[in-house]
């Protein structure tokens, strides 16, 4: 009889618990599912509006991520409220947990602040080619915590925003024009005027070379057997590498056609072996 009484008491307790909290749990689950769907829908809507309003490409993924995180936090608070948890106590607990998490994730917070700083100062944008933190590549995306680079050989590099915002960044794309500098080493036996004339002809024949600033051909090094001439011309940034490659190739062909001599290392006899002296290039 006692066992039966206990069973009935337990059943009544469980039934009462289900009646009180079961409906709240169902409502909370439905709220969570619907809320996640609404958040995804709003994220897509906001992103499409940013595209339509031509918002800076660098800002789009960052703002989308921040909005998604903020809405998910609000959704979690709403779901917990549906379960009947006292919000005053929950907010106090959340504040304490937030402080502890903040201390544990100082690096992540620094990266978040770095992302905000990058998007505010804008040392680079999506599509720019940069070098920073010993890495180089085209900026593919600026996220909340990191910046994504794509290298010319299609590698993906993730650089934390904190160190990136506080380091030296070389931006190769921000200016419309760049200076191309090529060095040609020839023998000192050549007529320097003839070599200069050949290079000037190549420069004038290439339409990608800008007239201003004026191209320059200068002697930058003079050794016993070699002479180094530096060709400095300006071009639009998109023509930097094609122009560099073409001028190198055309100069090689022109030097061969005009009989321009290349420097030959001089050899002297040093030391000795059983068979005689050993030549050494100098």
Please render the helix and strand layout as text.
Blueprint: H1 2-52, H2 59-82, H3 87-104, H4 106-121, E1 129-132, E2 135-142, E3 146-150, E4 156-160, H5 161-165, E5 170-171, E6 177-187, H6 192-205, E7 216-222, E8 226-236, H7 240-258, E9 267-273, E10 276-281
Antiparallel strand pairs: 1-2, 1-5, 2-3, 3-4, 6-8, 7-8, 9-10
Helix pairs in contact: 1-2, 6-7
Question: What do you see in this structure?
Answer:
- By secondary structure, this protein is an alpha+beta fold.
- It folds into three domains: 2-104, Helix Hairpins; 114-171, SH3 type barrels (Roll); 177-258, Alpha-Beta Plaits (2-Layer Sandwich), CATH 3.30.70.100.
- The protein is 52% helix and 23% strand.
- The protein has helices at residues 2-52, 59-82, 87-104, 106-121, 161-165, 192-205, 240-258, and strands spanning 129-132, 135-142, 146-150, 156-160, 170-171, 177-187, 216-222, 226-236, 267-273, 276-281.
- The strands form three sheets. It has a five-stranded antiparallel β-sheet with strand order 4-3-2-1-5.
- Strand 1 (129-132) and strand 2 form a beta hairpin.
- Helix 1 runs antiparallel to helix 2 (59-82) and helix 6 (192-205) crosses helix 7.
- The longest helix has 51 residues, at 2-52.
- The model has no long low-confidence stretch (mean pLDDT 80).
- InterPro entries: LSM_dom_sf (IPR010920), MS_channel_1st (IPR049142), MS_channel_C (IPR049278), MSC_TM_helix (IPR008910), MscS_archaea/bacteria_type (IPR045275), MscS_beta-dom_sf (IPR023408), MscS_channel_2nd (IPR006685), MscS_channel_C_sf (IPR011066).
- It is found in: Cell membrane.
- Pfam families: MS_channel_1st, MS_channel_1st_1, MS_channel_2nd, MS_channel_3rd.
- The chain crosses the membrane at residues 20-42, 62-84, 90-119.
- It is a multi-pass membrane protein.
